[in-house]
Structure formats: C-alpha cells, structure tokens
Amino acid sequence: MRSQIDLLATVTVLGVLEQAYFALQVIYARRKYKISPPETTGHPEFERIFRAQANCSEYFPIFISLLWVAGIFFHQGVAAVCGLLYLYTRFRYFQGYAVAAQGRLGPLYASARLLWLLLGLALAGLLAHFFLPSSLAWTAALARPLQLLGAW
After folding, report:
1. pLDDT, tens digit (0-9, with 9 covering 90-100), for 25-45
2. Which residues are marked as active site?
3. How far apart are CA 28 and CA 88, in angstroms?
4. pTM summary value
C-alpha cells in the first residue's frame, strides 16, 4: 500500500513545507516593514509578498486534491512529476511577485497549465475506473511510454 502512494505523500509534504516557507516570508516582511497583524497594507514590497502567499495558499487545496486523485486513479509517478513541477512554478511565482507584480505572470500561467493537466489526468483516471473494465491496464498502457523514457 505505501509504495502505491509514497511519491504522492512526498510531494504533499514538500508542498506543506513550501507553504510554511511562504508564511515565514510574510512574517519576515511584517517585521522588516513594521506591519503588525491584522494589517495587510503598507510598504509595496510587503503587500506583494502578502498577496503572493495568500494566492499560493488559495490554490493549495485544489492542487493537493488533484494531485491525489490523479495519482491514485491515473498514475502516481505522472502525478508526482506534475506536482513537483507545480511546486517549482509556485516557488518561481512567489519569487517573481515579491520583486514586481509583473514577475508573477509567467509562473502563474505555467502553474495554471499544470493544474489543468492534473485535472485532466484525474478525470481520465476516474472515467477509466468507472467505465473501463480493466482500468489498471489502461493507465499502465498510457504510462508505459514514460517508463521507457526513464521517467521513473
């Protein structure tokens, strides 16, 4: 059982650590610019860091849900790779937004594409589970080319 979800669990923990990092950056910015909670306005750099953290937190439940559904019903390895790429794009989003609002756009679009991909994988896996008699064979056949390329 554990070997069927170990990659998903690892990506989940990495995502939680990333969220903690973002929250710490808000704390550091509050101290740097002397902005006490519950205030959310002040220095422009603080506001960008605050918004970046809030935006990343808003999408985190969607990401985790899609990661696990895609990983369980489609393929754990494919979902985990998409999850790692998503976490990387959100990190780049946070960094870009902290510097300038325009710096968030490229990573934002990349992370949105990855969420759509995870949604597609999740839907494909669920449809196969409910409508194909041997859905495990179907998803294994789809994942086989990736295995041949050495993806895992």
Report:
1. 999 999 999 999 999 999 999
2. 31, 104
3. 22
4. 0.87
